[in-house]
Amino acid sequence: MDFLPDSDKMEFTRLGYMIKEWEDIHYPTPIIVSPLVKKIEERMSALNLKQRGTAKLLGISEGRMSELLSGKRKVSIRVAKRLRDSLNINSDFILDNL
Predict the structure, then answer these.
(1) How much is the pLDDT for 83?
(2) From CA 41, how far away is CA 78, in angstroms rounded?
(3) Per-residue pLDDT tens digits for 49-89
(4) FRET pair for 35, CA 20 to 30 Å: which of 59, 68, 76, 80?
């Protein structure tokens, strides 16, 4: 950053703080993985499934699957039923951890 003029250094620093503030609001850390996501990942591992295969099995897009596993999207009732039927995850466990 030494090659930048002082005004650009200040602007760069200001933008960095703004980005950090935005990330803290929208992506707070630590991200806690829900028990349901852990169970889905366990079943995926046991069945030797990757995200793509699991998404296909559940009838959802790969993007939706990624959002579910990252905690960015909640599990819908429709997907909960498919988790029960396709991955044999106990329905009580699913409902307790929605």
Answers:
(1) 92
(2) 19
(3) 899 999 999 999 999 999 888 888 888 899 999 999 999 99
(4) 59
Q: Which residues of 34-66 are buried (b: 16+ CB within 10 A; e: fewer)?
A: eebbebbeebbeeeebeeeebbebbebeeebbe
CB neighbours of 82 closer than 8 A, spacing ≥ 6? 57, 58, 59
List the one residue out of 75, 34, 30, 32 whose CA is nearest residue 54.
Answer: 75
| CA–CA separation, 40 and 11 (whole Å) | 44
Q: Is 68 exposed, middle or buried (0-12, 13-18, 19+ CB in 10 A)?
A: buried
Question: For the residues 30-43, what does the mean pLDDT come to?
Answer: 85
